[in-house]
Amino acid sequence: MTRITLLVGLSALLLVACNENNTTAATPSTIPSVSAIQVPTKVFIGQPVTVSIIGSKLSPNSVNIETVACTDVAITQQSATVLRLTCTPQAQQVPSIQVKNTQGKLLLKQTFIADSLATNALNDTGVIDCQTETDIISLCAGSGLGEWSAWQQDANVGRDYQAQQGQLAKLGAGAAGFDFTKIDISGKPLAANATVWHCVRDNHTGLLWEAKTNDGGLEDYDNTYTWYNPDTAQNGGNFGLENGNKNTLTYIQAINQQGLCGYKDWRLPTAEQLQGLVHYGQSSPTIDTHYFPNTQSANYWTAETTGSSGQFAVVVMFEFGLVRSIAKNQRFSTNENYIRLVRAGHE
């Protein structure tokens, strides 16, 4: 039961409330505060992360903690000055944590970037049509395949088939069975209809790809380079051609110094990784151009070398999706080709 006493003075009206338990309102000595939300340096999508909330007068009952794009939340009290929050970052948005007092006042908010985790998974081919001796049958319509309907063709199985049947769950979007997300210059995910982006995350493989630009700058899709790597542990015995500063190593160093999309561990892809972008359901270029519009129908360098003395490097040709080896340094030319760099949070 609450008892209210009115005290009237010459210049003020005081309303004093008390109850039978003699409970008083919170005083400054009992009000919680938050000075920092500490997130680990390396955070991966789909992997639980433990965050420290630092302050004073902290307990799970003294504050309200809200998360965005970080699920399966668990909160434990380490001490009166530290709360531990564990949650699992998701890929669709930039994860964030905000702490409020019990009256709803925001004490502190922290956003962070969750890195992709390489899965070693392989993409499907992008082929969604079947073929007979003479015809291409759109979406493998059974009536047109005749005796070929008994064959399990590429388009009848895998992620591409699941996508056509509406059975494939995607974190982002993409043609056929591909699952991509556009990423901005700072590393934040964007909507599929974004018109400006600098990187593309492959949600199936966990790899993050350079998107390329068409502005005449460092990342312009018209720029070509010679294959060059002086590291004998990686070059197969042949370092290629330095070609002034117009080579693969110099470009990688420039992109890492820039910190493209928030990262500084960009590199040339392996042949398998780069071929994983090939969309064999189309040609010139053989890639999902909604996510990789600035792509040449030509050779792109990989990190792999071949030959008895490492004189060849493997390229992926995005006109038809062929994978082949070419000389790092041809006798009468500098042999420049295109580059698309890749990175992954963990492999």
UniProtKB/TrEMBL annotation:
It comes from the Bacteria. Residues 199-343 form the Lcl C-terminal domain. Residues 1-25 form the signal peptide. Keywords: Signal. It holds the Pfam family Lcl_C. This is Uncharacterized protein DUF1566. It comes from Agitococcus lubricus.
